[in-house]
Amino acid sequence: MDDELLNFKQIIDNQLYNTAAQHQDVGMLVKEMKLQSAKLLTSIQKNISDLEPAKGRQYILQYQKTLAQLLTELEKLTEDACLSLPVKTSSLEIFIQTSAQLIADLEYYFPHYFDYGAVLPKCTLNCFNTKLKTKISDLQVKLETRGVDIETLQFFRTLSKSLISENKAINYQQKIYLENFLDEFNTQLQTIDGLPEILDVILITVSLNFNHPAVYYFCCAYFNQEMDKCESISQQYKMLNFLKKTFKQIFSLSASSYNSSLPAINESLQRYIEAELDYMKSLEITADDLRANGLMDHNFKVTFTVRQLAIFIHLQVEAKIIESQSPKVLHSYITKHYSTVEQENISEKSFKNAYYGNVGKDVEKVIDKIAIMLALAQEKY
Q: pLDDT digits over 233-262, tens only?
């Protein structure tokens, strides 16, 4: 390593650890560190001009790694009780700022050689998060001013928590992505005519390839919520196919992603939609096979009302007679294969409301039928 870097480190060691050395005042120390930083940067620029690209990259990476290690050691010293004196604390802050600026200079002057996969130093991350919070706050105020609904604001809050990683390390590539993401997100939001809805905000986020797990889980929950609003399985098919078409037609606005080790968010969401469609198709095929072999009638008519049927089915689930890991699938099956004295076609929404609603006097009719079943069982068996 160059003499300039050794001198840089020696100044730090003398100021922090050498009790015999004469300590400089803060003003003089700032000037000295700026001078040493300038010498160090000039030395790097001079030396790299004589190197082949591969060796030049290795040279810069070595400097970046050494400065990052030094900065990490300095940041750890901020918690050291031995450095509680004001003079040493001030010196330490100067050394941290100077070292962080040197790494930033390496990124600025040698972007093609810089390691963007390296983790951000703590001080750089804290500064970045402060700026990020301000941008997010301004954007949230804009959304609230436009009068967006609660669901859309909730998605933005989920997005905000994903963006700010105070207790999680991020690398330089993610820092650059997040800076660009918020600016482009704001730009795209302005192009929406009228009031932005939850799907609009999701589509912007997906087009910018913000492939954070929290965004993926929120979108999946949104898909399920929209399916629950459908009153029949055919409507669910239409909803899923609409989402499939919409996400396939998204125009990508970002060549990069939040996390390069994870798949693109649009690909993940399309796979989720395809899986839901395949599952619904498999249920349909199974039901068709059973009907074709005479093992299941197309429709069973019961003497219950919809509410009474819902109570009867719910009791069987509670009693472990019917085992179903997905209430939604069970509701779809019942509404598709049963009719009542009052309704030939039962909507999933009405059945779901009855399933989770108050039982009232309807439970008495169900109890009467169960009592008849019990009496028949005792008489015949």
A: 778 888 999 999 999 999 999 989 999 899
Task: Say what the pTM is.
Answer: 0.68
With both helix axes pointing from N to C terminus, report the angle between 348-356 and 306-318 in degrees, rounded to the nearest 10.
60
Q: What is the pLDDT of residue 18?
A: 64
Nearest Cα to Cα of residue 328 among 269, 283, 273: 283
| pLDDT tens-place string over residues 171-199 | 999 999 988 998 998 899 888 888 888 89
Do residues 33 and 11 make contact, with C-beta atoms less than 8 angstroms apart?
yes
How far apart CA 350 and CA 373 sit, in angstroms, is 27
Phi, psi angles (nearest 5°) of residue 252? -70, 130
Tell me the C-alpha to C-alpha distance, in Å, between residue 150 and each of 181, 205, 212, 218. 22, 18, 22, 14
